[in-house]
Amino acid sequence: MDTNTTNNTTPTTTPTPPLPPLQPLRPLPPPPSPPPPSPPRQPPSTPTPPLTPQTPPPPPLPPPSPPLPPQPIQIPPPPPLPQPPPPPQHHHHHHNHLHHHHTTTTAQTTST
Fold first, then answer.
1. Are 41 and 48 in contact (CB under 8 A)?
2. How far apart are the C-alpha atoms of 48 and 58, rounded to whole Å?
3. How far is CA 91 from CA 66, 79, 81, 82, in A?
4. What element of type H or E holds 110?
């Protein structure tokens, strides 16, 4: 049992002394070097921005292709909805006229 504990300590000590992982961090600073392309993108930003943003939108469209099946289901419900709006509008107009008349009479009566 003691041997197992010692073995466990050995591997633990080995990973701790390996400072090499810190060295890879040093090369990390070079990655920020890619930002330099930002300056050149600024000047052509005027003539290139319209083309660059337009090109990325097309790629995202492919994924939404699968949701196309649910779209056809939404298309049928819209037709029945447009029919009901016409009748309520007619009724509303009539109600508005009657209500207005009633309100005017009540307002005058209150004023008196």
1. yes
2. 16
3. 42, 21, 17, 16
4. helix 86-111
Q: In whole angstroms, how far apart are CA 1 and each of 8, 9, 10, 12, 32? A: 11, 13, 15, 17, 50
Whose tokens are 């309520």? That residue is 88
Do residues 27 and 20 make contact, with C-beta atoms less than 8 angstroms apart?
no
Per the confidence metrics, is the pTM higher than 0.85?
no
What is the chain's pLDDT, residue by residue, as a tens digit (112 residues)? 555 555 555 555 545 555 555 555 555 555 555 555 555 555 545 555 555 545 555 555 555 555 555 555 555 555 554 555 555 554 445 555 555 555 555 555 555 6
DSSP reduced 3-state for 25: helix
